[in-house]
Design goal:
The chain is of the alpha+beta class and 122 residues long. The protein is built from 4 helices and 5 strands, in the order H-E-E-H-E-H-E-E-H.
């Protein structure tokens, strides 16, 4: 477990410093950046050769963190979260202006997910 902890600490330090890191989820390995760091998010788009107008999924620790990016969470989203999160479910919800703008390709909605993988959770 010490190695996992060291890797998590290194990943967190990297992300907080504006860097990128690869991390596992239960379905894929993701290339991550801090969603609020536009320079880092641009680097993700660039490295993935992804058009800037194709939004990214923002990963958070748990469903409660959805409120950091979504300005409205409907009853259906709550029901789905209770049933399936954390896990391989991505929800598209109305986005708070100024939060994750570039990651969401400046669209009015944001894709949010709380992966269940232990590394992503940590």
């Amino acid at each position: 477990m010490a190695r996992l902890t060291t890797n998590i600490e290194a990943a967190v330090a990297c992300l907080r410093g504006g860097g990128l890191c690869a991390f596992p989820t239960e379905t894929v390995y993701g290339l991550g950046a801090a969603a609020a760091d536009d320079e880092a998010v641009r680097a993700v788009f660039s490295l993935k050769h992804r058009p800037i107008d194709h939004p990214l999924i923002i990963h958070v620790s748990d469903f409660a963190d959805f409120a950091d990016f979504a300005n409205s969470i409907c009853e259906l989203a709550i029901t789905l979260a209770e049933q399936f999160l954390p896990g391989p479910l991505t929800m598209l919800l109305p986005r708070i202006d100024g939060k994750g703008d570039l990651a969401a390709a400046n669209l009015p909605a944001v894709a949010l997910r709380a992966p269940a993988h232990p590394f992503a959770q940590a």
